[in-house]
Amino acid sequence: MKRGGSVKTEHLREFATLAGLGNFHVAAEVLFISQPTLSNHMRTLEDELGFSLFDRDKGNELTAPGSLFLDAAQTALAVLDGSMEDCRALVTAQEDAIDPVRLAVFIPHSEVHGALATEYGGSYVFCPFRMGRPHFYDFVRGQADIACTYQLERFPSLRAEADRLGLQHANLGRTPCSFAMKATHPLAAGPLTREGLRGAQFAILSSVEFGYWKSLISAFLGPDAGASFHPFFVDTTDNLRAFDLGDMILVSPTYMVREFFACREGYVSFDAVDGEELCMPRSVVWRQREERPLVEKIVARLRQVLDDGGVEGGDARPL
After folding, report:
1. How many beta carbons lie within 10 A of that of residue 40, not counting itself?
2. Which residues contact 102 (CB under 8 A, 6 or more apart)?
């Protein structure tokens, strides 16, 4: 038997399959090739190796060298297959890194990352959050694929704008909110009640957000609350660290109140009024892109993990 050229991977896979099944006819069917073709390939492999793999006089049993070579072939194939999978994953990661899904969300990034990290790795990035921008600013500028905003079912004008831009949308649970005020405020001793908040002054941190927060707070406190609302422009959340509420009360997502007010000396915060938590219903909006199926996969994952199913306000658009 003469030694030939290099061994073909195709022949190694056929040899491993044949050795495992012990029958040329069955192995050929499994491999979707003819039995004569399989026999010819094994002869070629043996010629290239320089030794017999099968004892034809003993029902095609593996020879001693054939048994030893089977272990090596299976190990080599496992390493090769594993390397190919690693390479494919690397290529996918590189493609995603070049064009990741862009998320413009006010939900804590840790909450979103916790929902996505185990399945989507680094295939998404967070857009810089700027207070006071129109809600769909990042979509208009082509800088976002997915965003989180107020529940569109509560605000027809906001839904109409999303529809005009061709955005898909669905409910996405609720964001808990808290009340922050200076420790010198008459209500700072707590607990907060609707009666105590009658006639209170509320700060709203941008003119863009004004109507939404006024509607939300007014509905929560009731029609006879007599509250007044005052817009104040804050361009970035970092400026909240120095923002002075004066005699006003701020209602904001709980994570923002805890980060920027509850930890500040001279401020206090409350998570409930009359023992009831105020929650802001929210929607997720996204631009459907046929070339980016990951966008809808991420939206579906966010809805699966973050939507508590308790938001009223109409049917959401299906994914």
Report:
1. 12
2. 124, 125, 126, 127, 138, 143, 144, 145, 146
List, in sequence order, every residue forming a beta bridge with 54; answer none if it has no partner: 62
Report pLDDT for 96.
56
Summary count for the chain: helices (H), strands (E): 10, 11
Q: Is 177 in contact with 280 (CB distance < 8 Å)? A: yes
The whole model's pTM is what? 0.61
Per-residue pLDDT, averaged over 215-234, amounts to 89
CA distance 184 to 187: 8
3-state helix, strand, coil in the chain (%, to 5): 45, 20, 35
CB neighbours of 55 closer than 8 A, spacing ≥ 6? 61, 62, 63
What percent of the chain lies above the pLDDT cut of 90? Answer: 39
Least confident of 37-41, 50-54, 308-312: 308-312
**147-188 confidence digits (pLDDT tens):** 888 899 888 888 999 999 999 999 988 889 999 999 999 999
- CA dihedral sign, ordered 238, 241, 242, 248: positive
**Could you tell me the domains of the chain?**
9-95 (1.10.10.10), 101-306 (3.40.190.290)
The strand pair at 249-253 and 278-286 is best described as unpaired
